[in-house]
Amino acid sequence: MSIIEIDKVTKHFSKEIHALKDISLTIEKGEMVALIGSSGSGKSTLMRHVSGLTLADKNSQSAIKVLSNSIQQGGKLDRNIRTSRAQIGNVFQQFNLVNRLSVLTNVMIGALSRTPSYRSLLGHFTTEEKHLALEALERVGLKNVVLKRASELSGGQQQRVAIARALMQKAEVILADEPIASLDPESSRLVMQTLKDINEKDGITVVVTLHQVDYAQKYCRRAVALKDGAIFYDGQIQHLNDDLLASLYGAQHTPEETSTELDMKDLNGILLAENGRINPKENHSLLN
Ligand SMILES: Nc1ncnc2c1ncn2[C@@H]1O[C@H](COP(=O)(O)OP(=O)(O)OP(=O)(O)O)[C@@H](O)[C@H]1O
């Protein structure tokens, strides 16, 4: 069963910036797919299209569906976007958690799409909701920090809280955009293992953008590689050989250099790209 259907998605940010070029892609239920490619290749833009946070070019043939529900078509957001979004758990660094709230409340916010908002705004969560949030936090190995403020957690812990929130939300799909971009190797391993665990045990479909090809190879079977906004490779990750990787990441690529070289270069790219993308209103619209 197809969970994500992306059809002919084209996006210009300006005349010069053609961020996505006729992307068509289908992701099946239960897959864990790595979205890879060098900085600026269009990974985040594609993820944001799937969440309906960015719209494709107007009057194009573009269409995106999640669980057969339309997210956007021809550059227009679907009317029932709230219902469609409820199926999608976002693990996006730029609007992950409400820092001043406790970890537990942040996870319970995951139930907002199913809860009358006056109740959740007043902080009136039911006992069942509290139990579900505790269970979700236990799943991601964070039961010991439930009453801490989100801002007190490490980056990796925050990512795992976002994953717990998606579990609480009963999301069928998790979109994780750069979930390990600024984490040390042990935290990265924990975040990736958590995603893999809920993918395998709960059958939740996961799409994760990664800079580090070695993590993609370790945790995902399928890779979709973008280059200059177009699909460069879509297939089993084990068939992505050094030649393909070299042409994906450019001439400087050698297998031994991948992690260190890309990390620094891409980190700068991410920070630059993120600067222009932080928009608290979008955070709010996701929660509602
Ligand atoms: N809001 C925006 N306005 C203008 N241009 C944008 C915007 N968001 C992204 N872009 C441009 O679109 C292209 C794709 O960017 P995107 O962030 O999707 O790439 P990426 O592969 O996720 O990169 P990174 O790995 O650095 O996060 C880049 O040229 C980027 O500068």
Automatic annotation (TrEMBL):
UniProt topology in membrane: Peripheral membrane protein
A Pfam family per the record: ABC_tran
Highest taxon of the lineage: Bacteria
Gene of this entry: phnC
Principal subcellular localization: membrane
SMART domains linked to this entry: AAA
Full protein name: Phosphonate ABC transporter ATP-binding protein
Residue stretches spanning the membrane: none
Organism of provenance: Marinomonas sargassi
NCBIfam families documented for this protein: ABC_phnC
Subcellular localization, as worded in the UniProt entry: Cell inner membrane
Span of domain ABC transporter: 4-253
GO molecular function, one term: ATP binding
Keyword annotations from UniProtKB, A to Z: ATP-binding, Cell membrane, Membrane, Nucleotide-binding, Translocase, Transport
